[in-house]
Design brief:
The structure is a single chain. By secondary structure, the protein is an alpha/beta fold. It has 14 helices and 12 strands. α8 crosses α14. The model has no long low-confidence stretch (mean pLDDT 89). Keywords: 4Fe-4S, Iron, Iron-sulfur, Metal-binding, S-adenosyl-L-methionine.
Length: 398
């Protein structure tokens, strides 16, 4: 599908199948070859702990155990997972994600999985999400030895964080972050879950944004998804005009290499597609057994970390297929669009309801705005070069 972009000086044609932008419609016919090496997995997710040492009021995972009995993965279960991966002939894992609950409560198995899988498989990147309250010698040694990418959960200043995650938790998480900064550890970011309670207590997103900017860390802010509907953010915080200004600011941040600044997800998706020719066939390409393997704490196979324990769903295939929604099927930017399938199924998506009906979508307008900005920037070769070359530093997941 060709999308036309008309500027004062030229007419551009954007091929939404291969993300080629040209002044000639005849030059937009390059095909994208999807990687099809069955020995390479894009992602392996292993839930090493079904227990958590906090009781966050919005937790979508029933306190971390996903409706099951609290437990830590045992070595015997870890060995079965390792055996299954090896038996599939896997020689490379791009992202090994060790998850929880709180993953560091089971640091021994955490380390064991890295060590054993590394004996036969090339692991490009190890990742984990932590609440940052467990910082013992074993955790410190693991960080020093394996240099994983850490996502540390911090919801904002002490008042709001402790309200959501428990008294004293902010102090402990901040201590963890301060330790990472003390050892000059750059391979981490802070993740904030934004709730209705933030709004009620006078913490608009601009305040949370400034809090993390002043802290001088990489961060991102996500709206909460929770069974506790009282905490769900009920309205869009940013108008369409503000979201377009955010796109412009994000492009400037990439050009100026402001790597700690949070950039617009729209910019992120458009540039990934245009620069790396990364095409999303479905709403979530991670839910693909050919490229992703997800294991629960008991060793059972799951489609996604959101569907562990008793959180199963038989609707994943239905919701993950863009062809099932006419407005998505006919959209010029569908190959760049990503949307969380679990959020759709559980009723948190602003685009598609839990009844599989289309609500509304502003992504066409926003992605069109983004492409126009890129066309404008491309007139200066030096600026375009910075945009292309600097993007890799902003990629959180590869």
């Amino acid at each position: 599908m060709l999308k036309t972009f008309i500027t004062e000086s030229d007419t551009y044609y954007f091929n939404s199948e291969n993300f080629t932008l040209s002044t000639s419609s005849d030059e937009c016919g390059i095909e994208i070859n999807k990687e099809n090496d069955r020995s390479i997995l894009r992602k392996v997710v292993i839930n090493v702990s079904n227990s958590c040492n906090l009781s966050c009021v919005y937790c979508y995972a029933d306190g971390g155990n996903y409706g099951m009995t609290n437990q830590l993965m045992e070595i015997t279960t870890a060995n079965k997972i390792i055996e299954q991966i090896n038996n599939n002939g896997i020689r490379c894992i791009k992202r090994l994600i060790l998850f929880g609950g709180e993953a560091f409560l089971n640091i021994d198995v955490f380390v064991y999985l890295i060590e054993e899988l590394s004996k036969t498989i090339e692991i490009k990147k190890v990742e984990t999400v932590t609440n940052g309250t467990v910082l013992n010698n074993k955790v410190k040694l693991m960080i020093d030895r394996y240099h994983p990418f850490l996502t540390v959960s911090l919801d904002g200043p002490q008042l709001i964080h402790d309200k959501l995650r428990g008294k004293g938790s902010h102090r402990r998480t901040l201590k963890f972050i301060e330790y990472l900064k003390k050892i000059d550890y750059e391979n981490f970011e802070v993740a904030s879950t934004y709730t209705r309670m933030h709004q009620k207590l006078g913490y608009p997103k601009e305040v949370i944004y400034k809090y993390f900017t002043d802290m001088d860390v990489r961060f991102h802010i996500n709206n909460v998804f929770s069974k506790n509907k009282v905490l769900v953010v009920k309205e869009m915080e940013m108008t369409l005009d503000n979201r377009k200004r955010f796109i412009e600011q994000s492009l400037e941040d990439i050009i100026n290499n402001n790597v700690k600044n949070y950039i617009s997800p729209i910019v992120y998706d458009v540039l990934l597609s245009m620069i790396f020719k990364s095409k999303t066939e479905s709403f979530c390409d991670d839910i693909d057994p050919e490229t992703t393997m997800t294991f629960d704490v008991d060793g059972t196979f799951k489609s996604c970390f959101r569907f562990r324990g008793t959180h199963n769903s038989d609707k994943v295939s239905l919701f993950n297929n863009k062809e099932n929604f006419s407005k998505c099927k006919e959209c010029w930017c569908k190959g760049m669009c990503m949307e969380c399938v679990a959020n759709m199924i559980e009723g948190y998506s602003p685009i598609i309801s839990e009844k599989a009906t289309f609500i509304e979508c502003k992504k066409q307008d926003l992605m069109e705005c983004c492409v126009y900005k890129i066309i404008e920037l491309s007139k200066d070769k030096d600026t375009l070069s910075k945009l292309v070359n600097n993007l890799e530093r902003f990629i959180r997941y590869a």
